[in-house]
Structure formats: structure tokens, C-alpha cells
Design goal:
There is one protein chain. The protein has a single domain, classed as Aldolase class I (TIM Barrel). The chain contains twelve helices and eight strands. Strands 3-2-1-8-7-6-5-4 form an eight-stranded parallel sheet, with helices on both faces. 53% of the residues are buried. The structure holds zinc ion. The site of zinc ion has 5 residues, from loops.
């Protein structure tokens, strides 16, 4: 089906107590792995591109690849901008056909974060596209536990932020750390529940590669509706390619190397979808009408009665 927006997808997740996996793609093999895994798991899926991935693969190239893959799929697929730290980057992605945006102003002072997020949401909403924002700061690996705590999202600030910016979902800093290669981050579950309770909107977990399986389950119960996975996919792709080259050092056909990487990525994604409770949930969505720009919009009221 045509690309859908993340708005109704995350509301469905919130309503039904699961989280949508948001997987970072860097090239064709990632796009294929993500969409194929979603098909096999019958899971709604968010495919996201970071600014680094856009620089690497090209903005229009990413949109074209993901559009074609989504249209051929029977499950709903969102194309989301991950960590757009710039107003213009968000506008360019909106214009290029992304169906979900993120403005990350977490390194800015509160008021500035509010002001730019608000500008992005006004423009995006005019086109029917939802926006994720970030408050507090999910740090990069190498920080101390005290630093992680000091950067966490404050529930009372979150309420003001959501009211003023009208963002559709919020990335919260609740104990996870970007680019962790071991699962040892401890989530502040009470903080997640509190932010969920006072803002009411779907919450997003970044830095998820360092979170334990139990942490995911508790986080989802408390209000996490979207979980970003990037580092684990990179590890899987590289692991697969290395194994293929070690198995047969004479191999020169890149398809025999990258193809093994793609299978490894797929395995990780499918396991995450099951863990997040997203498997089978594509059945909650039925296509309805055609939204802005020819995109199909899904509505939470379209849930099939089971
Ligand atoms: Zn992130």
C-alpha cells in the first residue's frame, strides 16, 4: 500500500499496548530487510533515515526506494526522518515525500526547542504529516549514570512543551543511551508513566539497543509506542558480511556478501517486532481513502472488529 503517516500508527500502538519498531536504513539491503521482515511478521513498520543516511544515500534516492518497497507491501509502512536537527532538513524531507518528521532540538535551550518545533509542526500539519520532537537529551555512549540522569525529560516541562508545540509524539530521555553495544541501560519506568499520563501522546524510545528485553516490556506498558533500532542493525549487517567473507575469502560478488548481511538484519528486526508486540498488528489497519499528496491515510477508527 502507499506510504502511510505515523500518526494513526502510533495511536493504534498506544491503544493496543504495543510499540512500533522504527528501523534505521542506510542502503537498499536495509530497506528490503525492513519491509520483508514486516511482511513476514504482519507488523506495521516505521522505516527511518537519519541525516547521515540521507547524506550517504541521497534524499530522493531514499524516498524512491522506500516508496516502491511500501507500495509492493501489504503492511503499512511509514517513512520517517530520524533526528532532523535543522528546520530546513525537515522541510526538505516533507517536500521529498517523508510521511513522518522529527525535529530534534534537544541540544537547544527549552524556549528555542519550543520555537523551532512549533514552526515544523505548523508546516507539517498543514500537509497532514505528523512530527516527533525531543525533550531532555538521550546522550551518546560514554556518559556517566549521573549525566544520563541529569539529561532526563522532566514531566512538568514535557506537558508545557507538548501544549505549546503540538508535536504528535515525543522522544523522551528516560535512561537509554545512543549507540550502546551491550544491553545494560536502566529505564526510569515511573518517569515514562508520568510523562505519558500528563501529556497523553505516544512516547518514543531512542538508544534502544542498550535496553534489556524486560526494559522494553515495562517501557511499552508505561507508554512507549515507538522504539528506534539502529545500532543493532548495523552490527547485524556487518556480522553477516564478515561471516560471508571469512567463509569464502575468494568471494568477490558483493551480492553474496551484502545478501548475508541483509538476512542477519531481517532476523534482528523480526525478533524485535515480536518482542514489541507488533507482530500481527498490521491486521488492525485497513486502507481508507487517499490522503494528502496521494498518500493513504489510516485512521484508528478503522480498526477491524475482531
Ligand atoms: Zn535517537
Amino acid at each position: 500500500m502507499p506510504l502511510v503517516t505515523s500518526k494513526e500508527m502510533l495511536i493504534d500502538a498506544q491503544k493496543n499496548g504495543y510499540a512500533v519498531g522504527a528501523f534505521n536504513a542506510n542502503n537498499l539491503e536495509y530497506v528490503q530487510a525492513i519491509v520483508e521482515a514486516a511482511e513476514e511478521e504482519e507488523a506495521p513498520v516505521i522505516l527511518q533515515a537519519s541525516q547521515g543516511a540521507i547524506k550517504y544515500a541521497g534524499l530522493d534516492q531514499i524516498v524512491a526506494m522506500v516508496k516502491v518497497a511500501a507500495e509492493a507491501a501489504s503492511v503499512p509502512v511509514v517513512l520517517h526522518l530520524d533526528h532532523g536537527t535543522d528546520f530546513f532538513q525537515n522541510v526538505r524531507c516533507l517536500r521529498a515525500g517523508f510521511t513522518s518528521l522529527m525535529f530534534d532540538g534537544s541540544s537547544l535551550p527549552f524556549e528555542e526547542n519550543v520555537a523551532i518545533t512549533k514552526k515544523v509542526t505548523e508546516i507539517a500539519h498543514a500537509c497532514g504529516i505528523p512530527v516527533e520532537a525531543e525533550l531532555g537529551k538521550v546522550p551518546q555512549v560514554g556518559v556517566t549514570p549521573e549525566e544520563v540522569r541529569a539529561l532526563m525529560t522532566k514531566p512538568e516541562e514535557a506537558l508545557r512543551f507538548v501544549e505549546e508545540t503540538q508535536c504528535d509524539s515525543l522522544a523522551v530521555a528516560v535512561g537509554s543511551v545512543h549507540q550502546m553495544k551491550v544491553q545494560e541501560a536502566k529505564l526510569d519506568i515511573e518517569r515514562i508513566a508520568k510523562i505519558r499520563e500528563i501529556t497523553g501522546i505516544p512516547l518514543v524510545l531512542h538508544g534502544a539497543s542498550g535496553v534489556t528485553d524486560e526494559g522494553y516490556r515495562e517501557g511499552i506498558k508505561a507508554g512507549i509506542c515507538k522504539i528506534n533500532i539502529a545500532t543493532e542493525l548495523n552490527k547485524a549487517f556487518t556480522r553477516g558480511m564478515k561471516a560471508a567473507m571469512e567463509k569464502d575469502p575468494s568471494v568477490v560478488d558483493p551480492r553474496k556478501i551484502a545478501g548475508v548481511g541483509r538476512e542477519e538484519i531481517k532476523k534482528v528486526i523480526k525478533a524485535k517486532m515480536r518482542l514489541f508486540g507488533a507482530s500481527g498488528k498490521a491486521r488492525n489497519f485497513v486502507a481508507k481513502g487517499v490522503g494528502y499528496g496521494g498518500r493513504q491515510e489510516l485512521s484508528a477508527s478503522d480498526l477491524k472488529k475482531e
